[in-house]
What we know:
globular; alpha/beta
Amino acid sequence: MSTDASAPIAVIGTGYVGLVTAAGFAELGTEVWCVDVDADKIARLNRGEIPIYEPGLAESIDRSRARLHFGTELAPALEHARLLFVAVGTPPTYSGDADLSAVHAVVDAMPASDHHALVMKSTVPVGTGSSIKRIFTEHGKSGFAYVSCPEFLKEGSALEDFLKPDRVVIGDDGNWAGDAVAELYAPLDAPLVRTDVASAEMVKLAANAFLATKISFINEIANVCEETGADVLEVARGMGLDQRIGKHFLRPGIGFGGSCFPKDVSALKQLAGNSGYHFQLLTAVIEVNELQKRRVVGKLQKHLGSLVGKRIALLGLAFKPDTDDMREASSLVLSARLQADGATVTAYDPVAEEEARKLMTGVRFADSALGALEGVDACVLVTEWKEFAALNWAEVADTMAGSLIVDGRNCADRDAVLAAGLSYEGIGR
Ligand SMILES: NC(=O)c1ccc[n+]([C@@H]2O[C@H](COP(=O)([O-])OP(=O)(O)OC[C@H]3O[C@@H](n4cnc5c(N)ncnc54)[C@H](O)[C@@H]3O)[C@@H](O)[C@H]2O)c1
């Protein structure tokens, strides 16, 4: 049994992944039935508001509005669609394992059917597909098909990543559903990796763990560069041109954050541990990342001495530019750490302030970069938004009381900063 590529699909969970997946397939001409338990989010979507910041997403949804349906009930989705993409959250638990309660809520809500399939986009531990199939069988729903189709999009360029993926990974049991998912993705003309469910689940975790390892690796090289007089930017350029290494994810900074890397690295480490294997390398990757965020404090102390009573501005709060996602952002650790050391913190982000206000206490939020820099002793560039690289450093020097710029992402022009009479501390330079 097959499903033609223009058949309607459903997307369960309309967060960063779900909404982009829905918009992407709708752009390709597919009718998409979106379901979310968050009634407020659905009401906003039905009013034409886009609840997250993601470049191009609002315009895309606007273009395809006639093909997109938003609701809180599963029934219309089950009625119209055979493929039900699951994009609910799988946040970390206290133990570091993935919290699968939202995934299981979806699984439990499925009726017995021999013409529907769950297509798992959420990032889940290896073995989840197998345990869901067992649950289906135990509840008399063994006809319900299951496909693992992990998502690799990057926030900030999510829609573009959806439309031009490096590859599409489909793990299935060789029944109609895997072929139907492959047909749906066919217009994207992307390399296809057809495999079993467990291997597809592992591709996602291993890919994120590898990228995180690359970041922690270059951060450690940066730290050694600081001790030895080398410039990590030159080193990364020289390394990255080696095709076996590649230039991506060799940008030193103050550590990775976001909704994926920290939790997926930890989930893979836990998964290994739960099956009796100690994944030493990932333990180090996580530790290096945590220490990297705190190195900023050492850099500030090197110039300012004690931080008690010092005023420090954080520019950029989202975990990376072009998103409003604050999950596991380095700015959260920094603002808490600086305040614990007695500093007062002002902050500015072009789009993430609303989210940041929910998570950061004791911080004064400004409406502009210069507003945050008014009278401060030091400025920390935390997220490399383009507007910070374009700052007028002479104006910055006039606005600040002190002169220290800590460039946590090596995104400012060091010479321009120094020419304005400011002092500059990068990462690994
Ligand atoms: N954000 C990323 O960059 C990214 C990239 C690749 C993979 N992933 C993975 O995709 C999954 C979703 O991530 P996200 O960032 O989109 O999460 P998110 O928190 O932005 O969105 C999840 C949505 O699911 C909804 N939801 C929760 N329970 C539900 C239920 N029972 N029925 C219907 N909707 C429900 C929530 O209300 C929310 O709107 C996670 O497993 C994540 O690891 C995320």
